């Protein structure tokens, strides 16, 4: 088979790594890709939102399967365009990707089908949002309704912070059109857990659990980011939690989307909060998490192509999804200043070390070639992932491997997975 992956981050590198191990695949392409993905794939400089060019490229290369990794092209309808051209594609159609594309839609869906989530209200008028703030308890959570690179969420502890947040999202448009509509929801407390799942429209098969670290600084301080690291599995995701989610959240979401005439095929990412009242949905994503994919996919025993094709063909119920009985931790190496301002084009060294050690991975997020040299090309540069027999060993291994990589202004958190010490 010839497979095309759409995207350019650590998630797509993790996907490319798994695809490269498939016995079904001969050639891999990626648009636009990055310096790490280039180890497995022929990368073409086509942007993820250049739909016509992607379709033309897939036809020209006679691609058998396209895997769309990124949220923007999914929400924009790339899957529909590829399928209209007769190209097998993994990912939700536009009318199903709205599950991530509109927080207002997803919250209303959960309310309608009684899927546990935080109490909330939706607003398209900043004045009405400000009035509503006079009636709520603090802290409160403000969410830009559309896609905001994982950063469109503000936790506000006081009325003054919340009013400023409304202005930031809806009037100043810090997150662009994502802030045309806003969700105000109750602040939930508890452990966060991420659960990725494969879906074929009817059947859902959940992957092993993970937990992300969103804040830029140690101790969950600083600005929200796309994710500074993650670990898998989560010790807080117990059998009891899993059974509750299977009954009231996972299948219920798949059935709700089908009932709405929006059957979902692809990956649903469940962001969960384990509250005192039980698990509740924080958010949905319509694709693999990044960096969650970097700890979940290396632990998957299955051939990813077989699972992906089962999702497309509606035969996921015949797949026995299996994961290794171990753990993995990913530490993101970022450029100092992320997520605000940072330098690019800085030479990276030490990457060859990962080829010498089994169970260690370096997934590229923001890299490119400058001649023969790999250089930084983003805020999140690399995701250093390591396995271990348990989380503590995996964590120690990941931090040891992070020392192998060197570039100027390298920045990372030093407490990824520290919560496991408290489990």
UniProtKB/TrEMBL annotation:
EC number: 6.3.4.13
InterPro entries assigned to the protein according to its UniProt record, in alphabetical order: ATP-grasp (IPR011761), ATP_grasp_subdomain_1 (IPR013815), PreATP-grasp_dom_sf (IPR016185), PRibGlycinamid_synth_ATP-grasp (IPR020561), PRibGlycinamide_synth (IPR000115), PRibGlycinamide_synth_C-dom (IPR020560), PRibGlycinamide_synth_C_sf (IPR037123), PRibGlycinamide_synth_CS (IPR020559)
Obligatory cofactor(s): Mg(2+); Mn(2+)
One example GO MF annotation: metal ion binding
SUPFAM superfamilies membership: Glutathione synthetase ATP-binding domain-like, PreATP-grasp domain, Rudiment single hybrid motif
Top EC class, one word: ligase
Keyword tags: ATP-binding, Ligase, Manganese, Metal-binding, Nucleotide-binding, Purine biosynthesis
Pathway: Purine metabolism; IMP biosynthesis via de novo pathway; N(1)-(5-phospho-D-ribosyl)glycinamide from 5-phospho-alpha-D-ribose 1-diphosphate: step 2/2
Highest taxon, organism lineage: Bacteria
One GO term of the biological process aspect: purine nucleobase biosynthetic process
Domain ATP-grasp: 107-313
Known catalytic reactions: 5-phospho-beta-D-ribosylamine + glycine + ATP = N(1)-(5-phospho-beta-D-ribosyl)glycinamide + ADP + phosphate + H(+)
Entry similarity comment: Belongs to the GARS family.
Protein name (Swiss-Prot/TrEMBL): Phosphoribosylamine--glycine ligase
Organism: Sporofaciens musculi
Underlying gene: purD
């Amino acid at each position: 088979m010839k497979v095309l992956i759409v995207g350019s981050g650590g998630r797509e590198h993790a996907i490319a790594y798994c695809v490269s191990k498939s016995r079904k695949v001969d050639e891999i392409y990626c648009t636009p890709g990055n310096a790490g993905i280039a180890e497995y794939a022929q990368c073409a400089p086509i942007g993820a939102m250049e739909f016509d060019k992607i379709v033309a490229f897939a036809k020209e290369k006679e691609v058998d399967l396209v895997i769309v990794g990124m949220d923007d092209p999914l929400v924009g309808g790339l899957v529909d365009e590829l399928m209209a051209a007769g190209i097998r594609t993994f990912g939700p159609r536009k009318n199903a990707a709205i599950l991530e594309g509109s927080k207002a839609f997803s919250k209303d869906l959960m309310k309608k089908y009684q899927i546990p989530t935080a109490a909330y209200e939706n607003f398209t008028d900043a004045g009405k949002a400000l009035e509503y703030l006079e009636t709520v308890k603090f802290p409160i959570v403000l969410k830009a309704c559309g896609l905001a690179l994982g950063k469109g969420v503000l936790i506000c502890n006081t009325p003054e912070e919340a009013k400023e947040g409304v202005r930031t999202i809806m009037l100043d448009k810090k997150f662009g059109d994502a802030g045309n509509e806003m969700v105000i929801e109750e602040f939930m407390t508890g452990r966060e857990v991420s659960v990725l799942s494969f879906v074929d429209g009817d059947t859902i098969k959940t992957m092993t659990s993970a937990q992300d670290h969103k804040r830029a600084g140690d101790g969950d301080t600083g600005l929200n980011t796309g994710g500074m690291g993650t670990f898998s599995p989560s010790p807080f995701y117990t059998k009891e939690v899993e059974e509750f989610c299977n009954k009231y959240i996972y299948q219920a979401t798949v059935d709700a989307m089908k009932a709405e005439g929006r059957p979902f095929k692809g990956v649903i990412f469940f962001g969960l909060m384990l509250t005192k009242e039980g698990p509740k949905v924080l958010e949905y994503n319509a694709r693999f998490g990044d960096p969650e994919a970097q700890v979940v996919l290396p632990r998957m025993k299955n051939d990813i192509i077989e699972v992906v094709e089962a999702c497309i063909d509606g035969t996921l119920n015949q797949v026995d999804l299996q994961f290794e009985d171990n753990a993995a931790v990913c530490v993101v190496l970022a450029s100092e200043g992320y997520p605000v301002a940072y330098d690019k084009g800085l030479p990276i060294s030490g990457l060859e070390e990962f080829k010498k050690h089994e169970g260690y991975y370096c997934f590229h997020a923001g890299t490119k070639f400058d001649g023969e040299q790999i250089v930084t090309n983003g805020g999140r540069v690399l995701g250093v992932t390591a396995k271990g027999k348990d989380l503590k060993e995996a964590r120690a291994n990941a931090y040891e491997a992070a020392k192998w990589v060197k570039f100027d202004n390298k920045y990372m958190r030093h407490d990824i997975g520290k919560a496991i010490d408290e489990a």
